[in-house]
TrEMBL record:
This is FAD-binding PCMH-type domain-containing protein. InterPro entries: BBE, FAD-bd_PCMH, FAD-bd_PCMH-like_sf, FAD-bd_PCMH_sub1, FAD-bd_PCMH_sub2, Oxid_FAD_bind_N. Keywords: FAD, Flavoprotein, Glycoprotein, Nucleotide-binding, Oxidoreductase, Signal. Transmembrane segments: none annotated. Residues 68-244 form the FAD-binding PCMH-type domain. Pfam families: BBE, FAD_binding_4. Its cofactor is FAD. Belongs to the oxygen-dependent FAD-linked oxidoreductase family. It comes from the Eukaryota. Residues 1-20 form the signal peptide.
Amino acid sequence: MFPFLFVVLLSLSWRINASALPVQEFLHCLSLRSPNSSIAKLVYTQNNSSYSSVLKSAAQNFRFTTPSTPTPLAIVTPLHASHIQAAVYCCRKHGLQVRTRSGGHDFEGLSYASAYKVPFVVIDLVNLRSVRVNVEKATAWVESGATVGELYDEIARKSKTLGFPAGICPTLGVGGHLSGGGYGLLFRKYGLGADNVIDARLIDVKGRILDKKSMGEDLFWAIRGGGGGTFGIVLAWKLKLVAVPANVTVFTVRKTLEQNATKLVHRWQSIAHKFPKEMHLSIAIARANSSEDEEKMTIQASFTSTFLGSIDELIPLMEEKFPELGLVKEDCLEMSWAESNLYSFLFLLRSPSETLLNRNQKSSISKTFFKAKSDFVKQPIPESAFEGLWSKFYEDEAKSAIMVFVAFGGKMDEILETEYPYPHRAGNLYTILYTVDWEEKENINSEKFMSWMRRVYNYMTPYVSKSPREAYINYRDLDIGTNKINNRKRSYAKARVWGVKYFKNNFNRLVNVKTIVDPQNFFRHEQSIPPLFLLWKRSDHKKHLSS
């Protein structure tokens, strides 16, 4: 018995030491690459008491914080670009993958977790979050670790008539958001956030810091919408700020099925994209209690809008374009552009701008367990199809489900789909975001919520874009396809399955850029752009590291 026990203990000890070895080698490498810095204090390993709290601090989808989720060997929280350069070098040298996190809003957790059992390191940019606004030139430099809320707050402190066309969720990390495009209240007027990036500073696979000029036209094109975690690590972005009025007008009008919601939704989808560029229009669909009978469930459609103008300008516009909604002056509020983002996201009224700085806001897509998907609609959906859809919201799993329709048109119709990696431009009436979330105690049955989402998505197939069925990279969905992480021979074919859905014909250009800037596919994850050829030998490894 004792010899057997000794063998078991020896085997267990060997496995523990084997798993610890990559961490020790990585830490030793960091110390050699940064001999005069305190980088050791910025690295959290699984033996560190703060490791778990740091890992979960910016994990927005709690599906990827469970004990079964693979976790990083280490988390690096750099203070300087040199710390990132050292981490990239040491990960390459010791065969570790890198995940880069700015705000943790990747819907599938790919900025801090992995669906594959591979050793990886998280580079968390939380300490790199400065925002410098130049009012005279209407520009801003923002580091990737800043949140959209921090960006908006700093802009609002410096100017009441400047804004930026990014998302409404204040906890979005700027780095990931702009890497995938980024749309919000101003996108019908000014395009996406990525459309308004005019320079950037990026650390490439060789550890070089490149700007727009030194990285070249193709790489600069690729990082503005081609998805995060593929081409390098963007340290900071130079943004072109845009003009906004000192006050904008917002409203939310809620209608249930008993109040003609189906006909109103059907009408909205035919006219919303034709409204002036100054108007952002959306509908949130969810289950609710009937206003006529509180014990009866119904469907509620919340029509929300932000208008770059006054109430007195908005009312006649709505009376002309969408009189069926019955908007009246009492439904409307005037507030600053920065406040309108909080209103649109959390329905907060007159919130202090400091609310934008709260990194722990909870919603259906942050600080909860959730699954999401996306679609693009090019033809009006029939009323009968909506009626069939509503029935699915009465199912048990849909108690916290939401569908959000966001109208396109305006500036989006004017930008060619090849101008930036994000291709979903002219021809789209609106986009759909589907979400379903659940509580921690329900996570043991998470598959039933995921199945509900997939049933709804399948139901919608006849009514949305086709060949390909398009999707938005910032609403990442691994259901539509994943890379085979270590299968080099078929990497392009596997990636093309999901790649054309996110990028359409721009996918091939992204692959070409990747092939040039990262031919060994160091920056990779389950849905990263692959290089076209991965024909390299082990003997090339040291040569590549020194280049």
